[in-house]
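Retry 2 of 3 after timeout on previous attempt. Resubmitting structure tokens to design endpoint.
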């Protein structure tokens, strides 16, 4: 992905997912994401495309503001509604950098659904208090990058709040995702529930809990 070109195509590739779906609204186990007081605006953008051979929705699992993480090397999650043979690229930039912090090709997803990128796999570390943006791009035509289908989000690393650290010490691992969500740590909450799903892929209750979490930030169309 060329550094500046995705910014140009954002205006033509925006795809807004459905925002209303009170999944499990009456279930006491549903995690409640609380908007962080420091969450900056200008978060998620999403892309979609239609064509004879490639029809899919592309989105990142990010809120519509700068999501928070306590991890130095967090995992980033994104979604594609159908598998594709087209090239896929990941770019991570910071607010002060001239060049991307990371610009790499991603392996083609084995199947449609939610995908994971571990920044640790690329030796990328986020500095505390720095605003980062990250983008996933599907590249239909390598020589016409304005045709890229783009999805992106914003992320900022913060120190673990003292009250959250105290609660983590006494919280069961299976409940950490809800604790992170309540503390406004979006990326940590998504990673925690997604890791539980990876460990128990047949557990539909976990998938419903993740879907309920995603619906709270306008991603109710993602139900994987």
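Retry 2 succeeded. Sequence:
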């Amino acid at each position: 992905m060329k550094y500046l070109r995705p910014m140009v195509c954002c205006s033509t590739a925006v795809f807004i997912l459905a925002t209303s779906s009170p999944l499990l609204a009456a279930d006491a186990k549903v995690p409640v994401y609380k908007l962080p007081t420091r969450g900056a605006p200008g978060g998620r953008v999403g892309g979609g495309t239609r064509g004879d051979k490639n029809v899919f929705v592309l989105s990142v699992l990010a809120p519509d503001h700068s999501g928070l993480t306590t991890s130095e090397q967090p995992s980033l999650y994104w979604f594609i509604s159908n598998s594709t043979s087209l090239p896929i690229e990941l770019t991570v930039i910071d607010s002060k950098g001239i060049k991307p912090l990371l610009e790499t090709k991603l392996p083609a997803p084995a199947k449609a659904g939610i995908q994971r990128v571990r920044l640790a796999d690329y030796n990328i570390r986020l500095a505390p208090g720095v605003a980062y943006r990250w983008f996933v791009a599907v590249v239909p035509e390598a020589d016409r990058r304005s045709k890229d289908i783009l999805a992106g989000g914003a992320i900022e690393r913060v120190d673990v709040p003292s009250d959250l650290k105290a609660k983590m010490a006494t919280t069961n691992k299976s409940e950490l995702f809800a604790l992170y969500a309540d503390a406004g740590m979006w990326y940590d909450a998504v990673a925690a529930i997604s890791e539980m799903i990876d460990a128990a892929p047949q557990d539909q209750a976990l998938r419903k809990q993740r879907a309920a979490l995603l619906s709270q930030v306008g991603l109710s169309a993602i139900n994987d």
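Attempt log closed. The first strand starts at residue 47 and ends at 49.
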